[in-house]
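Researcher: Here's my situation. A collaborator sent me these components and asked whether they could plausibly form a single complex. I don't have experimental data yet, so a predicted model of the whole assembly would be a useful starting point for our discussion.
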Amino acid sequence: MNLPTLESINLLAVLPVLIVFGWTLVLLVIDLFIPSGRKYWTAWLGILGLLGAAVALAVRFIDARGAAVTAFDGMLTVDGFSLFLQAIFILTAVIGILLALDFLPRHKIERGEYYILLLFTTGGMMIMSMAADLIVVFLALELLSIPLYILTGFARPRADSEEAAMKYFLLGAFASGFLVFGIALTYGGTGTTSLVGVFNQLAEGEPSRDLALVGMALILVGFGFKVAAVPFHMWTPDVYQGAPTPVTAFMSVGAKAGGFAALMRILIVAMPAVGEAWGMLVAILAMLTMILGNVVAIAQRNIKRMLAYSSIAHAGYILVAVSAAQRPEDAPLAVSAAIFYLLTYAFTNLGAFGVVLAVEREDGSGNLLEDFAGLGRSKPVLAAIMTLFMLSLTGMPVSAGLVGKFFVFQAAINASVGNPWILAAAIVGIVTSVISAFYYIRIILIMYMQEGEPQVVLKPALTVALALTALATLILGIIPAPVFQLAKDALLTLVG
Amino acid sequence: MIPLHWFLLVAAGMFCLGLFGVLIRRNVVAILMSIELMLNAVNLNLVAFWRYLAPEHINGQMFAVFVFAVAAAEVSVGLALIISIYRNRDDVNAGDLNLLKW
């Protein structure tokens, strides 16, 4: 029995997440002394904490120079992959807070707990990206999910928010039941919970491999729910529609990226020995997800619901990249394509929800497609920004979305030599991207071609968030190379 | 000594009972109880695997403790949501949660 030492715990390596959690706990107390009506102080203090974490992350990135270390006796891995994803989570949280800043008082649901819960779930996501042990995966997933259940119901007693929270909670708990059963079977098959141990056992070709295979399938089901992959997507449209819009924006990006972080680490790092099995399953899931998400989105009248189906479809594109990583030699390119896609999707989707938020009215209405009519005339800049986001979600040139899709399909076609499933997934992806143009471009047409008087409320915080996301979408679309190089250097590693 | 697969069969049976309960029960509280049954099946599995396969490391036992700690946290949020809905509607039937669809 070796006791943990200061080196093996390695607190410095996980400083960003420690700052987030520590500062949030302090904020929980500070919030008690902030008078109601001035809760924006909590929000700004929260952003301050996130900036502190970002600085720690940058220092860590420069210090590490691509080397991976473990913390907490091999329970966490701090590698390039986790650093890149942590940067995405911190960015998402900052923009998520900016989006909520004037939305909450406008809808009379301003409470300091909002920001605190948001910071807790951000911390959960950050741990998720570092998890190197199945126990930590489970804990981080719950740490991510439970605050999100509460945030979804934050607009209570509005009936739709409560209902969305209930549905999210029941299906989320149900899904984590599957996940943890899968983890238990993997543990039974390999006798260890650490990902390194699972990797070693599977590589030796243990006779109990079957048990681990069943476990892998159940883990896939559990994460399928989290990232909203078909056929586990049922909750997504209802929850996205019912939740307060800033929460929808935040979780459509954060929860998805968190789910993919752990899914990729488990499949690609710990289970390359059964790569063929999960590669095929993931490719099939990806095809179903892209087809259903894109086709059903066409029929939607409510923009939050439409963006929910769009977010299902985008989970499909990322799954294509995950399936392309089934052979270890293809994995680095596929993983960097997936995380780069997550980054482009984060900016674009947060921005699109920001515009939805500006058009939404105090009573919660104003979410129908028709409510965007006339935006092109009354608010030309806002309409132009929305056009940019819609083009980026479609994958049109001069936007981040095109570059993200390009790298994903490139990785898939590279990996598809001798593997028809990945090739099929890539082809379905390209065809469904074309289909998706129909419903994204419809919004642009409604904004510019139809007459209407949209009521737009644009406060400074929202303007900053929109400017940030629009700029990032443009810059990533025009000069993606530097950031993609970062994603390429962000290797997913096996250490322990 | 009782062989390992007996434990696994009981656990699998419990998991399926829980699954069945989630799918057929209409009352939200009963669904929550069924989910707990699924998690308890997992705990049984974990402890059995720990005892038979790797008793020298404490991982399995620790994991079971974490599972029920997390389950308790989840239930507290779930019950709060149920009470909040009950105040609004005087009823917690899953079939009546139908404001949001299509």
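Model: Some features of this prediction you could bring to your collaborator: Residues 159-190 of chain A form the longest helix (32 residues). The interface with chain B takes residues 134-135, 138-139, 142, 146, 149-150, 153, 156-157, 159-160, 162-167, 169-170, 173-174, 176-177, 180-181, 183-185, 187-188, 191-193, 237-238, 241-242 of chain A (CB under 8 Å).
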